[in-house]
Amino acid sequence: MASSIRVRATSNGDITEVQALIQHPMDTGLVKDPKGEVIPAHYIQQLTFECNGKDVFVADWGTAVSKDPYVKFSFKGAKKGDDLKISWTDNKGASDTTTAKIA
Amino acid sequence: MKTRSALLLGSLSAALAAFALTSPRVIAADKVDPVADAKAFQNFFFQKFPEVKHEDFVNGPYSMNADMKRQWQEKEEFPPYEFALDAGKEMFATPFKNGKTYADCFPNGGVGIRQNYPYFDEKEGKVVTLELALNRCREANGEQPYSYVKDEMASLTAYMAFTSRGKPMEIRIPDDPRALAAFENGKRYFYTRRGQMNFSCASCHVQSPGERIRAEVLAPALGILNAMPIYRSEWSGMGTISRRFVTCNSQTRAVPLEPQSDEYRDVEYFLSYVANGLPISGPGARP
Amino acid sequence: MTTTSGPLATRRLILQGAASVALLGLGNLPFAPAHAAANDKYPEEAFKQKNEADAIKALYGRNAEPSNKVKLDAPEIAENGGVVPVSVTTTLDKVSSISFFVTENPFALAASYKIAEGTIPGVANRLKMAKTTKLVAIVEADGKLYSATKEVKVTVGGCGG
């Protein structure tokens, strides 16, 4: 099973730019399926980016984040080759983690 | 309103003039001339939208509207079809139960060939689309065919389109009366009004690209298939050419045909042929 | 099949109802409001608030003042309300969090980001907007709250592309 997380982390001297795309339905719990049954809320609540033992960026999400969420940010203090650990947990207790090398 | 209809009239007559200029055989209406048709079709769009770069038409509504183009470019930084593309690549490389793969069914192992589809199969006497060829490949190898409108088919065609990105569409019409008839039939379907709203494909995508229908900006017909398959935000997912035709029909309150029915195959043949020379841009992302 | 699915569905609805009552009950307990920036806990309460003011209060416990140092970038007309690219940058110092509120959504708080020291104060993401709405970005900097607001027009999808 391929990872649900796609990351691009590129170092540009002092600054590392990070883009991540995560495969997740992000169901709001307000939508009905074709049979008329409510699709229960199912969404990522927390997404963490950790580098060199430190949380550099933490996202707290509600149901208004789009399906297959995307986020982009930049941080200082990392260099090419460093590991960036990305993990998420959702409201049903599911989670996924991946580690990307900063390019 | 007055200006707008005047503009519309103006562009229509310009199109007619262009058609007359580029097609000396316009009077011989019974003569099928795809070369002249393609030239007239392209010139119509090039003259109607002189500020749009030719290769940009394959980006659909984004070639027509700057604000939307910006939103699209932001999306393209990490495009929503990325997962389908990866899935397609993996599926393409995974052998069937009999050990063969998709690559065994296609010229050049299926890589970089999207621009040659659909083609006219002279043995069968019909148009064969990429989606059809993929399912035939599955069936020939003892696998169940995929739904033409759903995810697996879109993933496979996304991967195949990706390997052809930037290559000019290159559809051939062999010197075979059946091929010419298929082209003509597709053209007829494209320009025929149907459904409760009495729209033809051309009403929206030739007469009114760049204008809004309700909230959305209409895509030009020129190069519209070069971007397939597409991730449509409206669908929250991927869709194939078949899916696009079916939804277009149902949104204009017409009765959609069966995916890969002869007429849809012929429309695809017509629309792809008149986009010859424009680059493959699929997989695409659309509102 | 159809005869059995009726009661089952009802039962599920009742269960759901019971669950939300239980959640509401918890919400009413005198817990201290979880401030997003103060710790790493997921701000459950703030995400449950329907309107923007209540969500800001639950998240930060105070109000924000408008600032031209918060640059909020969003389209004027969203091509699709389900996927609206939105981003914030700021020239403010000592930024510890950035949050987005979509006032017309069923729950106003959309996303809240904790910005560590050394992380550039800015974020781009994609949000859902139920209809034409005010979008508010709040930047927490040096213990104070600053905001920027923009209106985004959202229209339902139909035929296009």
TrEMBL record, chain A:
Q: Which SUPFAM superfamilies match?
A: E set domains (SSF81296)
Protein origin, superkingdom: Bacteria
Q: Where is the Sulphur oxidation protein SoxZ domain?
A: 6-100
Instruction: Tell me the InterPro entries matching this sequence.
Output: Ig-like_fold, Ig_E-set, SoxZ, SoxZ_dom
**Descriptive protein name:** Thiosulfate oxidation carrier complex protein SoxZ
Give the species this sequence originates from: Bradyrhizobium symbiodeficiens
Q: Which gene encodes it?
A: soxZ
